[in-house]
Amino acid sequence: MTISMPLPNKEVLARRAGIVAAMREIVPGEGVVDATNEMRVFETDALTAYRQLPLVVVLPDTVDQVAAVLKYCHANDIPVVPRGSGTSLSGGALPLEDGVLLVLSRFNRVLDVDFENRCAVVQPGVTNLGITRAVEHAGFYYAPDPSSQIACSIGGNIAENSGGVHCLKYGLTTNNVLGLEFVTVEGEVVRLGGKHLDSEGYDLLGLMTGSEGLLGVVTEVTVRILQAPETARAVLIGFPTSEQAGAAVAAIIAQGIIPGGMEMMDRPAIRAAEDFVHAGYPLDVEALLIVELDGPKAEVDYLLGAVEDIARANGATTARVSTSDEERARFWAGRKAAFPAVGRISPDYLCMDGTIPRKELPRVLAGMKQLSEHYRLAVANVFHAGDGNLHPLILYDASRDDELQRAEDFGADILRLCVEVGGVLTGEHGVGIEKRDLMPEMFSEDDLRHQQRIKCAFDDKHLLNPGKVFPVLHRCAELGRMHVHRGQVPFPDLPRF
After folding, report:
1. pLDDT for 408-444, tens place per residue?
2. Which domain holds residue 471?
3. For residue 95, which of 105, 107, 74, 81 has the smallest C-alpha distance?
4. Which of 39, 359, 419, 459 shows a CA-CA span of 20 to 30 A to 106?
5. Domain named FAD-binding PCMH-type: which ranges (predicted)?
6. Separation of alpha carbons 89 and 242, rounded Å
7. Which are the contacts of 16, defined by CB distance < 8 A and separation ≥ 6?
8. Residue 316 sits in a domain of what CATH number?
9. What is the DSSP string of 120-175?
10. Which residues, 6+ apart, have CB-to-CB distance to 332 below 8 Å?
């Protein structure tokens, strides 16, 4: 393991028995787990290369219990790591040896469905797919759909600003959340937004969405639900090269066509997914696009023809349009199962999450091919192609001495390439520990200090999810210092408080 975490506080470790006893008073019954073997299920998230047992695991049932846990930990300088379903691919839910792991899985109820206002109020432990299941009987659904939607929780989606195959047209989590209830590190319960479409004042709702558990613990979410489209059809389009498929993606968007979803897979991912799901993917192509159009039937029929024409002009050799909802679902089932499918052909893999301008897709694909040869590791590519969110899966074997290190270095170079072409380090998986030490590739020291000032405003002691996101964590007192030059403060006319 090459990624380091903060050294545990020995004084906190020495107080473990008292901390566990205090947690049992706050959360009675079976809500506290402190036996080593029983805590192992929580020692990692979906970035399984990194593992760490927590100090203690706490599973509260009520908001009052969450508030009491946080208030106790703040008063006693104990770190807290919030956790949902543990599907994070960036190590965002990795526990700390001297920290309480606060698991929200028991917050799993749909509290209210309001079809008139097209929203639902749910607890953070409700799964992403569970929201759609709660409203589909009335012809509605929740648009963001990560591949892990059957397992990932909406609270985790908030933390990482998750997306999915339909985020191109309908947006990420941040575009589909109307309100939040969260608890501060001091134990104060705060509400942001609600069923209304907009809120006054600063966009704290947008700030909390994607904050990776560093600012507060979410205990309730109000999400936007959408009416299912009249028609939805998908087309599988095969290409001789990944570069041609990438060019077709850019051309489709350039024509003003915004599909409901547009995904890309290369040959290794195509074969793995087809062997796993039997979705009907062509096996004689180097790259596959799955393009879904939705809306009124006449519009969908017209756009399907336009997409096929654009694809053919960019070298497509095959095109197959779904003829039923069942067949369309099979097309997507293969894509959504790509990650576990690749797990069948490699002992281990790292999933990257860089995002680039669409026009740079051919260049980045060529760059990844060179990096694959340099590091002597295979890569299977699965992309949210429409919005440029790349998910290269680097295949390695952790039992071999240097392969994890080479995989990490390979992944870091992919992310550096994304930034180099004008992209960003993460599209939906978050920074966590995986990309933490790459933040200076994208942000200056001043940028990072300003971000940490926001962290200090919410968490002055840096107790919430420490060791994540920021490569170097400054004390709040340091960040609060004002530079005085020759006795003059900046902007002397401004009032000071």
Report:
1. 999 999 999 999 999 999 999 999 999 999 999 999 9
2. 445-497
3. 81
4. 459
5. 50-228
6. 25
7. 55, 56
8. 3.40.462.40
9. EEE-TTSBHHHHHHHHGGGTEE---B-TTTTT-BHHHHHHHT--BTTHHHH--GGG
10. 165, 234, 261, 290, 292
